[in-house]
Amino acid sequence: MMAHALRRKLYVQLDPSRWPASGLSPLNALICTAILVATISAVAETEPLIARGREALFARLEIGFGLFFAAEYLGRLWTAAEADGARPPWRKRLRFVLSPSGLIDLLVLATTFAPFLTSNAQMLRLLRLFRIARLAKLGRMSTAMRHIADAVASRRMELALTAGFGAGLMVAGATALYWLEGAVQPDKFGSIPRALWWAVITLTTTGYGDVYPVTPAGKLVASLVAICGIAVIALPTGILAAAFSDALQRAREAKARGPEA
Amino acid sequence: MMAHALRRKLYVQLDPSRWPASGLSPLNALICTAILVATISAVAETEPLIARGREALFARLEIGFGLFFAAEYLGRLWTAAEADGARPPWRKRLRFVLSPSGLIDLLVLATTFAPFLTSNAQMLRLLRLFRIARLAKLGRMSTAMRHIADAVASRRMELALTAGFGAGLMVAGATALYWLEGAVQPDKFGSIPRALWWAVITLTTTGYGDVYPVTPAGKLVASLVAICGIAVIALPTGILAAAFSDALQRAREAKARGPEA
Amino acid sequence: MMAHALRRKLYVQLDPSRWPASGLSPLNALICTAILVATISAVAETEPLIARGREALFARLEIGFGLFFAAEYLGRLWTAAEADGARPPWRKRLRFVLSPSGLIDLLVLATTFAPFLTSNAQMLRLLRLFRIARLAKLGRMSTAMRHIADAVASRRMELALTAGFGAGLMVAGATALYWLEGAVQPDKFGSIPRALWWAVITLTTTGYGDVYPVTPAGKLVASLVAICGIAVIALPTGILAAAFSDALQRAREAKARGPEA
Amino acid sequence: MMAHALRRKLYVQLDPSRWPASGLSPLNALICTAILVATISAVAETEPLIARGREALFARLEIGFGLFFAAEYLGRLWTAAEADGARPPWRKRLRFVLSPSGLIDLLVLATTFAPFLTSNAQMLRLLRLFRIARLAKLGRMSTAMRHIADAVASRRMELALTAGFGAGLMVAGATALYWLEGAVQPDKFGSIPRALWWAVITLTTTGYGDVYPVTPAGKLVASLVAICGIAVIALPTGILAAAFSDALQRAREAKARGPEA
């Protein structure tokens, strides 16, 4: 009986949708903090200037976080039996284990406790960050998420067209510069895929400067591509601005019509 | 009789405006996919790291796609007789052959089957991408296309003015830096056309770093040009955002007034 | 009598505000074209790759354009007597000569016919471009110009604040990097004015790459400055978008209220 | 009695909220100008090309500005007794001394008169710029400030989400390039913190060019990160544009409902 009450309490703490108050439950807030600190630790660990001489500290941190997240996993496994539905507890638990989030949790735990199974632990540990998004999907944050997703979705055809226009421009620019500069700079423009690297970095207005045209004709075409880069940024920004504006307007009008509408 | 029924069926499949359901007909979906794959293959073929040792494969792919698109061309030529109008079939077919899209198709086919006629096959093969735009000009995609075109067209004077302002700024900045830096860096700022390359790359905030001022006065003017670059991006973005917003607003109001309006 | 009728006719052609039809008068259209061609010629003349061996051609072009614009100037001087008002013709003409546009015209003519008076002819010849703006200030172009100017003016305090925020960020970032990187890269960050060059190029997201921090602390601060650069672009763009949107909305509402409003 | 009248007069001049007319009081306008000139002088002083041979001039300027701001500080201290409230004058003055602005003023004065106390005088002198913001927080400027703050605040969840999305993208991109390029360019991508420098400079589309991928896989991932950089700029810009638009719309509707609303 007491175990059931404890399980219920823990379930309310662990499942964001069950927490009655707004915001995160204390336990989930602690877990989010632990994820952030563990991520910062995993990032810092790779930098020799920080990690040299502190290998033991980072190893202990990793084990500590691993134990903490393992305990959390067992807690979720145990309390999964509290989920709604008439199925027997073991089926609810299996459902949790086989859910995408359950599998990701298990995979990340493996990078700590079964390092021989995975070669790129850093990449996998980042998956923990997705958990923050999942846990924080609550209240006002969730509303904001839906606002952005709705605005993007409502204009998805226009955004897709803009992306298609950008992609076409990219391929056309890369082909033109392959043709104009390929012979002069074969290592940089000697093939269309190589020229595509230049086209992406130019159209996004990043401009590293590792690749740029040197012939007058190449510079002329590159100028046109760079100028079109303004459209590639201005069009989606304008479309998104209008979509957000429209969503706010509709919300205001719905409010003005009152609750009976 | 059977040939006529087949020709009718093929025509419905090939002409996007005849397809009764929304979206692409199965045949046109196949053609779009073939165009994308053929383009990727044409792009990859130019990269030695990919193509070396696979010349035969790429040659066979090119011939394969060529035969496929030749068959499509013949199909469109044959079914062109089904087009609306009282003219004799041969005039309808001539109309297709002499239409811009028919001529582009023929030109692209020539790069495969008459390579001795064209020197830059890669450029011409890209023209196939236009066909995707033509085939996909349908339903919701077509509505989105019209939305963007309408928004741009409704504010074309403002956008032209912004472009004029940007062009003026470009020429003024280039002339100033030609005057200030021409003697110090003659290969980079030794003429206004050379300085224009710098001005384009700066005003679009690309900033490759192959050309930049080195004198204090040059840096001061370049700073002003770079700061104006923000306006050159912010103005058209703002104008487009307002145009898209206005179009959505008008659409909503038209809907609110009801169908009789 | 005939001279008067001719003068009147020429005046209607030359003064944009007198032209009864929309658009430019044929003579002003010719003048605009001549200004554009003369500017392109003046730009091209500075490039040795274009001008070498064609010095005589460019000299003749410059003299030709000079004579054309001198004739235009004399025409405007002659027809100035047709301007509204009761003053004697010589006062109207003096008014034209001493007007900003009259003085600019005279200054530009001096670069051709009195080259010994001016040292940087290229800069001065660009002033001709202002004339295009003046001549084209007509009809729909003029409306669009007023739209942009109104939108910018209506939010000038917000835009000034954003500029102030950007300037403060620039000075703060430059001071921080002067302090953090000054000793390591004295030629690049050895003074706040030098660091300001870096700050401008970073905040505008141009990023030439001639100056960048190399110490971890410098990179951390530079990262923050670069991230704030997004706000420096997003804020004015958002403000302008809202201003344009508001202007369109007001225009639509004024129209909806009807002509009696 | 006369001292009281003078103190009252000075208080009205010094405290922006007491000045009856719009804009700055003459004394505060002088102080703002002095702050700007002192800041420019402090910036110019660090540049050897400007300061060499003028050390005495800059030292005298610094002492002069120091005396001016010391006199202002004493004036504010003296007139603080005029502040509202029933507390004794010494408590009102202590309140001024211990207020953030009073402490900053004192700190900046220390850089001039007690240089042995502070090591980085330049940084501290910049704090004077905050005073301009405080003094100018008036009338229309204050309204504009509140407009921007309100718009940002009303969409703070959406902006925070976008920042979170950008941060996640940054860490993911840095980890991917650490993994793909770490072995090839250990000094540039040899740790995630090093790769984060690349990620920030790429996502903000700055692109110095000191760090960029060289392997095909690295370039592919970097291309995706650079393309996502467009979203990282477009999303907050669109959100801010809609927020500003919504604020203007609400202001117009409130006005339309009239003063009784």
How is the secondary structure organized here?
4 copies of one chain form a homotetramer.
Chain A: H1 2-14, H2 26-45, H3 48-51, H4 55-79, H5 89-98, H6 100-113, H7 121-125, H8 128-135, H9 139-154, H10 156-181, H11 186-189, H12 192-203, H13 216-256
Helix pairs in contact in A: 1-4, 2-4, 2-8, 4-6, 9-13, 10-12, 10-13
Account of the 3D structure:
The structure is a homotetramer of 261-residue chains. Chain A has 261 residues and is mainly α. Chain A has 2 domains: 2-137, Four Helix Bundle (Hemerythrin (Met), subunit A); 149-256, Helix Hairpins. The first copy, chain A, is built from 13 helices and no strands. Chain A has helices at residues 2-14, 26-45, 48-51, 55-79, 89-98, 100-113, 121-125, 128-135, 139-154, 156-181, 186-189, 192-203, 216-256. In chain A, α4 packs antiparallel against α6. Chain A is extended and about 80 Å long. Chain A starts with a helix and ends in a 5-residue tail after the last helix. In chain A, 35% of the residues are buried. Chains B and C meet through α10, α12 and α13 of B and α2, α3, α9, α12 and α13 of C.
